[in-house]
Amino acid sequence: MRIGLISDTHIPDVAKALPHQIMEAFRGVDLILHAGDIYITSVLDELERIAPVLAASGDDDFGDVLTDRRVKSKHVLKLEGQTLWLVHERPYPYMFPPLQTRNSPGQHEPDAPDIVVFGHEHTTVVRDYGGVLFVNPGSPTFLNYSRGLGTVGILDIDSGQAQAHILQL
To answer: Would you kindly state where each structural domain of the chain is located, as residue ranges?
Structure first.
């Protein structure tokens, strides 16, 4: 399964529209996950022309975005034998009780994540932490809080193995 990852689009505040390069970057994906700060639902509609879309509500999202059927504060997805969390803000282990994973001793929580897709920070992250793959695709419009072409991510899950990489637009 190939999944397009995007976050912090900030449309129309930072840019008038999604960069057209996203269409090429996400060509052939099976699903698109938006990790919040969407601003307007037309962004999700445009992405949905490529593939089905799910989104996390961001701290700057309001109005119609929060009532859209595709948007939740947290999605827990079971994909190809992996449990994926889609959230806006990274669940820092030091902000919450220690992050328990399926591989932690004595841990049998069925919804413990194997993968966490998040946004909010406007920076890219692909990092394994305690057996959990954390991925932040950055922002296609406001990477490192600078206007202009930024990044998206691709997550490939095959035979229970997940790999993510970042694409510069």
So the answer is: 2-168
Residue 50, CA atoms < 13 Å, CB-side half-sphere: 25
Percent of the chain scoring above 90 in pLDDT: 82
Angstrom distance (rounded) from CA 103 to CA 162: 15
Instruction: State the amino acid at position 124 in one-letter form.
Output: T
Output the pTM of the full model: 0.91
What 3-state class would DSSP assign to 116? strand
DSSP state of 143: G
The b-or-e profile of 4-36 (16+ CB within 10 A means b, else e) is bbbbbbbbeebbeebbeebeebbeebebbbbbb
Q: Which CATH superfamily includes the segment(s) 2-168? A: Metallo-dependent phosphatases (3.60.21.10)
